[in-house]
């Protein structure tokens, strides 16, 4: 039976303040007293606590006397640190090459980490454009069969949600819109949002100037009002408060400026908004399958996010049962704002970025640790002398950690420059299309992150070498006269670090390989059309000025005539969505004669409007039937042309030409006759090879927003000004948003993906170089340590190939261990990428084998260089040096 112990907390209290030279005796006396009284354990514990408390004042007095009797000339900790710092700077100055390589290696890693943290800071920590986030929720839609996870909400669904939800005190909605601003020298397209009048109240974000929209501002027939974004107010009106009450002309209508938005609302895509106008909602005028609202709800006091989510899901199920034609397969869901904005796929990408930069940092620290281990063996004689002169082990460790801190601080300063350059590169690669990259700044939180890295990194890469260098057997290892010996444990530490570098590098290279192959597969898919030499001008006619279909048709007819008359233009046509760059309008389709079960979703296709000649201009072959022509007029039966993918999917065993379809849920909607089938063009979505397009003739579907396509035999970009002039000759007040080639439009659609892939590939290349340098450094050091042995082997007649194999075998063991661990780690990471990798498997054997092969080749080369150098040296010289 074990004897009872004194109360642990009281024991700690009794010994904490007692000077070290008296602590053991004091605690021993208390322990003896406790043992004598332990027959009554409760009384013994009370006694021990009383003694511990009573010893506090005597212990403090003893410490004060000891402090007063201390030699005031003793070196203070700050003075010691200053000595270590000065000595460390001198030591690094004597090894300029080592210091430069170490700083550059660590600076790259810190720069990458800082840049990515600035992105994470925007997503995870940045202030969102609303207050009271605990009770705010986003309502979105998802349709797994269509791959939609963050879809918008239809007007009827929104109005039903407002009426039925009991756990929410209010909802607000917004939708994108654009207007033509006139009154200046050149008509300008301004973009923004239409919002419900209560949006600023729901978001709890009052304007910085004026007022928000009043309750009646969003009703039909109300006087036109508008709010300005803070940036637009500053750039266009110089921040003048007198703008309140003035008018601006949007789409030919005077709008009264009633307020200026809080700059906080300029978050992500909202930052592109210039004006905000009231949104008028009408259940009778909106289709339930037309989803275009961004919805934010405010929970009632005491209602949790979980309960709000459950209520929205319940309403969604009810709507799905009540309106199966439009709502089957579409689910409403709510989630906290920050969580919903990121989405499942975004969370995976964010997590992969965090893991990747952590791996980059670990690889850099492992490489630096190996460099410091090698350097410490060279300085072994120095440490032995210092030990012999009485320097304690802790002082040597502190000295080396101070040197590591100097390297880390210098690398952090250089790393900030790398981070700034990387952030600018991301914006440049994405062509300013990704708001996240533009919002990434080096603010106070990011700078605090850099300071944290600068303080933690020396421990990561400097502690192990410092402990090894200060080992008590340093002087013993110097007795044989070799200043470079490091012992078995040091060699083992270096080998483990190199294998870890190989494992981490392989993991990063696999992730980068999978993502790069995804983008490559997406970009090398069959285009289905010829994009070279095609210019696209984006137009969107103001509805109040072009209210009738005839007016729209007349504008585009004259615009095509003017552009087609340009001497360098060979063909001209209209299309509503640029293939491979823009989506068509997602619409539910009904096929004549086919019944759909109530629990089955309606077929969904992408509706695209074209003019005659568009397929010929894009060189999209007609598979069967006929093209649009002058026979297709507003007063003739409506017609459509199907993409081959639509024909294969919905008419797998029959010819759809002559069949009839219609869109929407209105039973009185006209039936549309299929007159032809054209070859497929690629989809804008990477997970789909071909777009499911249904084409309608512009004469029968006169839209306001169209793209004018013009083919030129030579460089079409030089015709941009001529195309603009041709359009302004029809309507000088018509803004032209973008005139660019189809290739540029496709690049803009994938610009964010290019930027992210560039990041991952850069990480992989960095990891590969660091792993190669790590192996090279270890093998070079090993060869230098075995110089006498190799010289003796060569002197005794050993073949060069045998020496090569011996050295390569040692490096191969390091490589093999890292490859095995790296492959296992890569398999785990690849599972996380399943939802973001398209066109290949997340465990694609070719990627794993290819990456492992590249890493193996580079590692063997890093092994071969020291091996070749060892066998080219003179054996006699090597033996004489020993």
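-> sequence recovered:
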């Amino acid at each position: 039976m074990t004897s009872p112990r004194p109360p642990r907390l009281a024991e700690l209290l009794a010994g904490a303040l007692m000077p070290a030279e008296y602590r053991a005796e004091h605690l021993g006396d208390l322990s003896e007293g406790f043992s004598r009284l332990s027959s009554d354990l409760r009384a013994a514990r009370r006694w021990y606590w009383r003694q511990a408390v009573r010893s506090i004042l005597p212990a403090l007095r003893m410490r004060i006397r000891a402090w007063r009797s201390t030699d005031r000339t003793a070196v203070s900790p700050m003075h010691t640190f200053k000595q270590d710092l000065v000595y460390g700077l001198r030591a690094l100055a004597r090894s300029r090459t080592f210091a430069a390589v170490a700083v550059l290696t660590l600076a790259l890693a810190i720069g990458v980490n800082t840049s990515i943290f600035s992105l994470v800071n925007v997503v995870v920590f940045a202030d969102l454009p609303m207050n009271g986030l605990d009770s705010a929720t986003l309502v979105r839609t998802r349709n797994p069969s269509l791959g939609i996870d963050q879809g918008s909400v239809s007007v009827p669904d929104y109005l039903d949600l407002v009426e039925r939800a009991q756990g929410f005190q209010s909802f607000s909605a917004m939708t994108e819109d654009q207007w033509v601003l006139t009154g200046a020298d050149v008509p300008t397209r301004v973009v923004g949002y239409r919002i419900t009048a209560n949006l600023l109240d729901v978001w709890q974000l009052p304007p910085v100037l004026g007022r928000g929209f009043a309750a009646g501002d969003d009703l039909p027939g109300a006087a036109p009002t508008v709010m300005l974004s803070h940036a637009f107010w500053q750039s266009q009106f110089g921040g003048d408060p007198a703008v309140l009450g003035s008018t601006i002309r949007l789409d030919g209508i005077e709008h009264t400026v009633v307020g200026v938005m809080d700059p906080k609302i300029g978050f992500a895509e909202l930052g592109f908004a210039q004006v905000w106008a009231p949104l008028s909602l009408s259940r009778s005028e909106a289709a339930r399958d037309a989803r275009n609202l961004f919805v934010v709800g405010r929970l009632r006091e005491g209602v949790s996010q979980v309960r709000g989510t459950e209520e929205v899901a319940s309403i969604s199920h009810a709507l799905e049962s009540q309106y199966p034609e439009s709502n089957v397969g579409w689910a409403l869901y709510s989630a906290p704002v920050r969580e919903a904005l990121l989405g499942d796929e975004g969370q995976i990408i964010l997590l992969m970025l965090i893991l990747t930069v952590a791996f980059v940092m670990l690889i850099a620290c492992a490489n630096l640790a190996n460099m410091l281990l090698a350097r410490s063996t060279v300085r072994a004689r120095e440490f032995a002398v210092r030990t012999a002169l009485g320097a304690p082990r802790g002082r040597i460790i502190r000295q080396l950690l101070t040197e590591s801190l100097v390297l880390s601080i210098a690398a952090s300063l250089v790393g900030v420059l790398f981070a700034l350059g990387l952030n600018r590169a991301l914006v440049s690669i994405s062509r300013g299309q990704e708001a996240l990259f533009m919002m990434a700044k080096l603010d106070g939180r990011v700078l605090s992150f850099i300071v944290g890295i600068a303080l933690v990194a020396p421990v990561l890469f400097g502690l192990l070498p410092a402990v090894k260098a200060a080992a008590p057997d340093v002087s013993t290892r110097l007795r044989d006269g070799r200043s470079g010996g490091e012992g078995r444990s040091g060699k083992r530490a270096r080998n483990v670090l190199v294998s870890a570098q190989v494992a981490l590098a392989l993991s990063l290279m696999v992730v980068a390989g999978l993502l790069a192959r995804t983008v490559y597969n997406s970009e090398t898919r069959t285009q289905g059309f010829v994009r070279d030499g095609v210019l696209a001008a984006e137009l969107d006619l103001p509805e109040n000025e072009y209210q009738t279909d005839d007016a729209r048709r007349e504008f585009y007819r004259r615009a095509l005539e003017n552009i087609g008359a340009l001497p360098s233009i060979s063909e001209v046509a209209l299309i509503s969505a640029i293939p491979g760059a823009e989506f068509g309008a997602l619409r539910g389709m009904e096929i004549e004669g086919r019944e759909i079960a109530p629990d089955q979703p309606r077929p969904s296709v992408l509706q695209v409007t074209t003019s005659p000649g568009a397929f010929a201009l894009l060189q999209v072959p007609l598979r069967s039937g006929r093209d649009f022509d002058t026979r297709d007029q507003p007063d003739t039966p409506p017609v459509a042309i199907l993409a081959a993918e639509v024909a294969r999917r919905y008419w797998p065993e029959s010819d759809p030409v002559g069949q009839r379809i219609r869109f929407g849920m209105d039973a009185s909607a006209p039936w549309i006759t299929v007159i032809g089938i054209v070859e497929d063009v690629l989809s804008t979505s990477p997970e789909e090879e071909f777009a499911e397009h249904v084409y309608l003739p512009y004469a029968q579907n006169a839209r306001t927003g169209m793209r004018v396509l013009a083919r030129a035999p030579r460089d079409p970009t030089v015709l941009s000004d001529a195309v603009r002039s041709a359009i302004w000759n029809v309507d000088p007040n018509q803004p032209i948003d973008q005139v660019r080639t189809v290739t540029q439009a496709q690049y803009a659609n994938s610009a964010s993906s290019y930027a992210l892939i560039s990041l991952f590939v850069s990480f992989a290349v960095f990891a590969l170089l660091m792993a190669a340098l790590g192996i090279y450094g270890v093998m070079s050091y090993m060869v230098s340590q075995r110089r006498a042995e190799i010289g003796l082997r060569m002197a005794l007649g050993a073949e060069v190939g045998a020496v090569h194999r011996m050295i390569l075998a040692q490096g191969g063991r390091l490589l093999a261990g890292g490859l095995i661990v790296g492959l296992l780690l890569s398999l785990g990471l690849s599972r996380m990428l399943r939802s973001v990798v398209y066109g290949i498997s997340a465990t694609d054997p070719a990627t794993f084998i290819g990456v492992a092969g590249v890493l193996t080749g580079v590692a063997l080369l890093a092994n071969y260089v020291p091996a070749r150098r060892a066998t080219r040296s003179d054996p006699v010289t090597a033996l004489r040096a020993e």
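The first helix runs from residue 8 to 16.
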